[in-house]
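User: Hello! I'm new to structural biology and keep hearing that structure can be predicted from sequence alone. Could you demonstrate with Putative phosphatase? Please show me the input and the output so I can see what each looks like.

Assistant: Of course. The first part below is the input, the amino acid sequence of Putative phosphatase. The second part is the output, the predicted structure written as tokens.
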Amino acid sequence: MPISGTPSRAELVEHLVKTRIAGDVATPRENNLSHYRQLSNGVRNFWLGLELGDRWTDEQDVLAVMAERVGVNDDPEYRHGQDTIDPELTVAALERLAARLRKAADSEQRVLFATGHPGGLLDVHRATAAALRSAGCEIVVIPDGLQTDEGYVMQFADVAMLEHGATLWHTHSGEPMKAILTAMEREGRPLPDLVVADHGWAGYAGQHGVDSVGYADCNDPALFIAEAEGTVQVTVPLDDHVVSPRYYDPMTAYLLSEAGLI
């Protein structure tokens, strides 16, 4: 069972490994390398709302970034089997994210939360939004009536998501975030000071020039590339859909504690 309360750094590292949020994760090496190849081949679904141009056409360059920032195996000849996320890199990224959340709280910034992975990360975002609201931040309410080709852009528990057929939808697309920011500009509303998200929601926001932080799995390299290039400020490596969403609770508690929000 997940540990309760706010863990120490060492306890969190142990918990991440035990629950496979990091360490030996469920995503196999074959899937990781396939996604790195598709990104380098210009398949836009793997760019997560970013514009990478021709800067990342070598799959080995992508692998090198993922080894450095995520902790996957750096051997290009390792093609099959288990792959990893370094839990120390996960916690270090959480601490960088906490510093950005503290800055938002200190300045009472406008913050927009969104997720393309509601089955795993919805409550992480919800709890973070609640903590920032208590600290004086404005949690951005998205415009009504937005949709993309995949479905309707909705907001539940302070978190923007895609709804399709009365179901919260998993998406890598940046189009929902584009719909939100375009509508806000059209209405003359100020854009968020910070976007806290994942997948294409985080990628498009950063590409649009909004401060963006987020979470990403080891088979989604685009946000880590964006962090390396400075388009996204922080990307936290983790398995973004483990057996129970409750497994993320100690991680969220550590994040909010490091940010001085609990």
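User: So the tokens describe the shape?

Assistant: Right, they're a compact way of writing down the 3D structure. Reading them back into a model, for example: The chain has a mean pLDDT of 97.
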